[in-house]
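Workshop exercise sheet. Pairs work together: one partner reads the sequence aloud, the other fills in the structure field after running the prediction. Swap roles for the next sheet.
Pair: D.N. / O.F.
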Amino acid sequence: MARRCVVTGKGTTAGNNVAHSHKKNRRIWKVNVITKKVFLEDENRWVRVKISTRALRTLRKKGLKVAIKDHGGDLTAIQPKKYVGNAPAKAANPAA
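Structure field:
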């Protein structure tokens, strides 16, 4: 799974290390992302989200849904997961 914040959408960034002689070497900056369980009062359930520590301050102030909407995010990241598995086998119809 990608290292990306659910609220802000921040992800890994690439750039250069620039030495004093202006020699450039490629490098990456990773976002400080943690997995956090958040309680949604209006839905009365816990949600596990991957959120940057910077966005965690916003989350405490505004709440999860408002913070995601303010940053132009999609609420499908916190929707309940549907059961994905083997469907129950249908009984064979002996009369047919």
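Discussion prompt: The helical segments are 53-62, 64-70. What would you look at next?
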